[in-house]
Each structure stands twice: as C-alpha cells, then as structure tokens.
Amino acid sequence: MSIAAENAAATPAKPLARINWVALAPWLYTIGLFVLWELLVIALEMPPTILPAPSRVFQAILQYWSPIWKNSLQTLYTTTLGFAIAVVAGLGIGLFIGWSKTIYAGLYPLMIGFNAIPKVALVPILVIWFGIGTIPAVLTAFLISFFPIVVNVATGLATIEPETEDVLRALGARKMDIMLKVGIPRSMPYFFGSLKIAITLAFVGSVVSETVASNYGLGNMMSSAQSQFNVPLVFAGLLMLAVEGIAMYALMAWIEKRMTGWAHRSTMAQ
Amino acid sequence: MAHLVSPLVSIENVDMRYGGANGTLAVSGLSMKVGKGEFAAVVGPSGCGKSTLMKLVTGLHIPQGGGVIVAGKQVTEPVSIVGMAFQNPTMLPWRTTLDNILLPLEIVERHRHRLRKHKAEYVEKAERLLETVGLKGFGSKFPWQLSGGMQQRANLCRALIHEPELLMLDEPFGALDAFTREELWCVIRDLHAAQGVTIVLVTHDLREATFLADRIFVMSARPGRVLKEHVVPFARPRELDLMYEKGFNDMVHELHGEIAQARVAA
Fold first, then answer.
1. Number of domains chain A contains
2. What are the residue boundaries of the structural domains of chain B, listed by start?
3. Predicted confidence (pLDDT) at residue A170 exceeds the cutoff of 70
4. Is A238 part of a structural domain of the chain?
5. What gap in Å lies between CA B252 and CA B254, rounded to an integer?
6. B209 or B110, higher pLDDT
C-alpha cells in the first residue's frame, strides 16, 4: 500500500516520458556486443575466414537471403514439430510418472540414464531407421527436449501439500479427484516453465541432426558453408538460429504468463 | 463429570504405529469420547500424537489396535461427515476464494452430482458462510490477495460448506497474531453456537482450549494417550473478558502443570 502511494507521488514529479533503461537494455546490450565484436575484428585484423566482422555477417545474410530463409524455415519446422511432440509426450509421461510413487521410483532412474546419453550419438541410429532428412531432425529435437518437461510435470505432481491431500481424502476423494482438482493445475506452472528450457534444447537437437544427417536446414547449410570456407555464411546461420531461439523463447514465456498468471502473484499482487 | 448420552466420536484403546512392526508407536491405549454437539479440545506436549488423532478420527489412518467409532460406525475408510482445517490454510491459488470454498462439494458423494444443477443455491450458501466469518464480498478475491487471518477464515468456511457433523481443527490459529487469533476464537465460538456442529480442536494454546472447549483432553508424551479429562465449567456464551477471571487462569495453570509433568515423564 505505502509503496503504491509513493509511486503515485513520484510519477507526476517527472511528467515527460523518462527513458526506460530497463526496456531498452536488451537492445543496447545487443548493439554493444556487435560493436565490440566489430572493433575487435578491426583491432586484431582478423581474416574473415577465421572470425568475420558482424558487418560482413550481415552482408552474407543479405547475399544468401534465399537459402538462409528457406533453411531457417526448415529448421524452425523440424524444431517446432519435435518440440510439439515433446510437449504432448512429456506432459503425458510426466503425469504418468507423478501418478504414483512406485512408477516414479521405477522410471526416474531410467529417465536419468536416458537423458545422460548424448543425443548426437542417437542420430546415426535414427538415420538407420528413418534415413536422412526431416524425420531424424524432428526426433532428435523431440528426444532432447522432452526430459525437462517430464521432470517438471512430475515434480509439480509430487509436491502436492500433504494437508491439501488429507483434506480432500477425508472427504472421500479418489486419486483421480485429487489429480484433476489439485495435481494437474498445480503442475501447470512447472510445465509452462519447462517449455522455455525445452524449446531451446529442441533447437540444439534439430541442428545437430541436420548437421550430421540432412540435406536441408540451417545445420546442413552451415556445415556445407564450412566445407567451402564460407565462414561469414556459417556465422549468418548461427545468427539466424539465435534469432529463432529468442523468438520461440519469448513466445513460450508469453504463453507461460498467460496461462499461469496466478503463479506469478508476487509481481501482480495488490 | 457430564454424562455422554450419544458420543459422536468414540475412540477405544487405540494403538497406532507408523512404519511397520518396529516403527514409532504414535499413540497407545488412547481412549476418548466426544459427545454430539460438544466442543472438545486436545492439548499435550509436542509430538504427543495429536495429528495422529486427527487422522484416526477422519479415517485417513486405520489403527492397528482398538477401534474408532464415528457416528455409530466403525471407521474403516475416510468418513465424509467431517470437515478439516489445518494451521496452513492450503487454499488453492488458482481458484477464487469462493471456488476454494466450494471445492469439498465437488468431492463429497452426495453433493458432487447435484452441484452443477444447483450451483446458485450452493454459491448462496458459501456467501452466507463468508458473511458469518466476516468475509462478505471477498469471494471473488484470490486467496493470495487475502491476509493470513482472512485465509484462515475462508479455510473454516471450506471446512463447513458440506455441513459436516464433525469439524476437526489442527492448530488452525497457530500462525496468526494474538489479536487476529482472538477474533477467530469468537468466530469459531459463534459458528459452534449457531450450527450445533461437533468440534475437536487440537491445539498448543491452553487459553484457547479453555476459552473455547466444553471438554479438554490432556495427552501424554509419545506414545500418546489421554492422561486427564477436564470439563470446562464456564457458562456459555463466553466473552473474551472471561480470560482475565481468576477461575479461568486457575484452570489454565492447572493444565499447564499437567503438561509440564507429562513432558518431564517423557
């Protein structure tokens, strides 16, 4: 209350729009990074085959716009598809694991063991099964990104307050009732939080697979550019990946906020 | 000692052990009777199995020895004629206060099937309860928009919405400041007077027990059993001023002495 009053009193003191440094900071820092990079390249006289300056990278983006655009869309497609499968499967497996302590105890070590396997090592197997191209990329994106979703959903279910459970069980609630009324809504903030981690991992998976075993996508584009010593184009691909990653992350963060506003009460309260 | 015509809760020589044959014996030889419409309080040193008592009466735990009879029936599964409230209000943060209060109706067998059709009727009932505890107009707020005391009031409403015959309270006012606590004592006193519900209150606060209860059970240290039973002689309705009278303080003092002894004996 008192903080709100102080804010109200402080705002009219500076009537004209003050520069909102917090909102501006991401852009300024990004520009700062590019400027620093450019200066470093100039100062060290780096040849573009080792470290191209950002200006050279942007030039490459314009020059190769058509293949970059096509491959970016391909990577976005495989990543999003793999991620979507991961969301469905992760939610399902997470609910299944969180359902009972026995299932949780039995499957958890298996999941950890599975997650410890580097997914790049699975790509050759996927290629044997499905051939090169889109399918292994989608599946690698799926395999790498579903683990955090499973763990988060299961954790949300496993951390129901025992008092809440007692209150409901004393009323004659069945396991299903407790899951539907408490467990699932409770695990939703964990679930939506995990999407942010999962989407960035999905990009790792799809690009790894495209690099090793595909004729399309940014991963493939970068590896062929690399074999032709076209380093600016490699960096252009990296930049596009970063842009796609940030965009998808922002989308997930937005969805999280929309769906589970109640869990962010500290910023909304009063 | 008042004679109990029809006990609503009757616990006879109950043993309850956690964690298998060599586990902790939480209560042993526990016996108590609570009459219909009575307000009983259970006090004792910490770790005396008061929470176990709650779970035994509500049917969340089934004892290994002895019997628990609630409303004339041996308890073998959760009994849905009880309402429960704990120290932690455990309101679900994604539901409004009103929807939180309606939650038990979505569970209890005889209400869940008619909830949708008779929603207005139930909402009206919830709003009446909110008014009783002094939360009129707060139903649309989310629990985290309420203070601790208000959440605990809402928690009481949730425990009462399905018109339980028995209300089990496990230190419901423990986390509140002294003034809010006294306010809520009056709320629960008035609810008891108005609704004729049987209440079992588990508490550490001897003044709270003496002010509210008709009958106080003093429990021993683990493994818990009832050491002594007191009938509280003060006439109802009781006012907060009662707590400054000599008779009241003597009783609190006596209870204090008994619990101190029970702690030493442990």
1. 1
2. 1-81+166-202+214-266, 90-164
3. yes
4. yes
5. 5
6. B209
- Yes or no, beta carbons of B142 and A163 under 8 Å apart: no
Interface contact A181-B108, CB threshold 8 A: no
Residue A86 included in any domain: yes
Query: What is the predicted ipTM?
Result: 0.77
CATH number of B1-81+166-202+214-266: 3.40.50.300
The CATH number for A92's domain is: 1.10.3720.10
The answer, for B163 touching chain A at a CB cutoff of 8 Å, is no
Give the mean pLDDT of chain A. 87
Phi-psi region of B171 (alpha: psi -120 to 50; beta: other; left: phi over 0): left
Residue B207 backbone phi and psi in degrees, to 5: -65, -40
Residue B266's pLDDT is what?
Answer: 63
Does residue A165 belong to any structural domain of this protein?
yes
Tokens matching residue A78: 């495989």
Q: Which domain holds residue A255?
A: 54-268
From A269's Cα to the closest Cα of chain B, the distance in A is: 7
On chain A, the residues whose CB falls within 8 A of the CB of B144 are 262, 265, 269
Considering only CA atoms, which of B182, B216, B177, B174 is closest in space to residue B199? B216
Candidates A238, A270, A251; CA nearest to A75 is: A238
Q: Which of A163, A171, A186 sits opposite B80 (nearest CB)?
A: A171
